[in-house]
Design goal:
The chain has 316 residues and is an alpha/beta fold. The protein has helices at residues 3-33, 80-87, 112-127, 139-149, 165-169, 176-183, 188-196, 199-210, 219-230, 236-243, 252-257, 273-283, 299-302, 304-315; strands at 44-48, 51-58, 62-67, 90-95, 131-136, 154-160, 262-267, 288-292. The protein has an eight-stranded mixed beta sheet with strand order 1-2-4-3-5-6-7-8, sandwiched between helices.
């Protein structure tokens, strides 16, 4: 076989592999979103300048905004176990952040500043009053920044398993742009994303990190997270930005500046969680914290009764 024929054969095989991968990616997406598990009859839409934002509103009373963590598979579904109970005392808003869940997922770079603007604009436009906020995981970072920049919009803050101060401060590294560009490629990047967001990968994530008791993870929860991970135009964009630290920000000055009431809630079975929460009190001595036994990253999903018992006295 001549060199010309060898090159032609290699090109044909490469093209076939790329085409087959693209078909597999498409089939995974269609299958993941086919059950419409996240559809809600009371769904609302905030027409934000960078994309439409899905949210829900229920109950009556003082406004309370629930913000899920920034994760490729997260959405307002995360609060389903506690939202109805909270709605008996408050007007509860659950939001799907831009790039997550049922909200639009444009191809772009997602940053801490973007989410600070989104939350601030959402409160002004859709709530219209100073509001209490419960935020989870890395969403605590930009909630703190938003409260520092726009204190008139926020009342009580409850932060669930916030990241360590050091983790918050980690900026994009030397090769972050190159790595993000690779993850953003339409075929190979999507294939890697589909591997990271498979049902088995999500099941492992819940069993090892999200829940203390792996046997309490329901298949319906895995399916809902799997659907959220595949909705929208570019779901892998948030995945790339989180992995490359684009949504991080140094929050130490903001913590010192905030004069709001702040309560931290931690999963007792997260390694070094007590030290992480106590670190926050170093920068703001008014911060309170409590731990929920036999829980990890998502106590509001795994231990909803205990979570509500911890939240209610602080909000009252």
């Amino acid at each position: 076989m001549t060199n010309k024929n060898k090159l032609l054969t290699a090109l044909i095989l490469s093209s076939s592999a790329v085409a087959a991968t693209a078909v597999i990616n498409k089939c995974i997406k269609v299958s993941a979103v086919s059950q419409h598990l996240l559809e809600e009859p009371q769904s609302r839409c905030f027409h934000w300048r960078l994309g439409n934002i899905h949210y829900t509103k229920s109950g009556t009373g003082r406004p309370l905004l629930l913000i899920h963590d920034v994760n490729f598979a997260s959405s307002g579904f995360q609060w389903k176990a506690v939202a109805a109970s909270l709605a008996s005392h408050y007007t509860v808003y659950t939001i799907d952040l831009l790039g997550c869940g049922r909200s639009e997922k444009p191809y772009m770079t997602y940053t801490n500043y973007l989410y600070v603007q989104l939350i601030s604009d959402f409160i002004r436009s859709e709530i219209g009053h100073r509001t209490d906020v419960i935020a989870a995981g890395n969403a605590c970072n930009f909630t703190i920044m938003a409260c520092s920049n726009f204190p008139e919009l926020f009342d009580h803050l409850i932060l669930v398993n916030p990241e360590s101060i050091l983790s918050c401060s980690q900026m994009p590294g030397k090769y972050a742009k190159l790595y993000k560009g690779f993850l953003d490629t339409p075929v190979i990047g999507t294939l890697l994303y589909n591997m990271a967001s498979s049902r088995q990968a999500l099941r492992d994530q819940f069993s090892r990190y999200y829940f203390y008791n792996p046997y309490s993870v329901k298949e319906s929860c895995i399916n809902a997270y799997h659907e959220a991970a595949h909705l929208g135009y570019s779901p892998r964009s948030v995945y790339a930005c989180v992995h490359c630290n684009y949504i991080n920000c140094n929050i130490t000055n903001a913590l010192k500046k905030i004069d709001n009431s702040i309560c931290l809630i931690g999963g007792e079975n997260i390694e070094h969680e007590k030290e992480i929460l106590e670190e926050y009190t170093v920068y703001n001595s008014a911060i309170e914290y409590t731990m929920i036994p036999e829980s990890k990253y998502l106590p509001h999903m795994e231990k909803p009764a205990e979570f509500l018992a911890a939240v209610q006295p602080f909000l009252s």
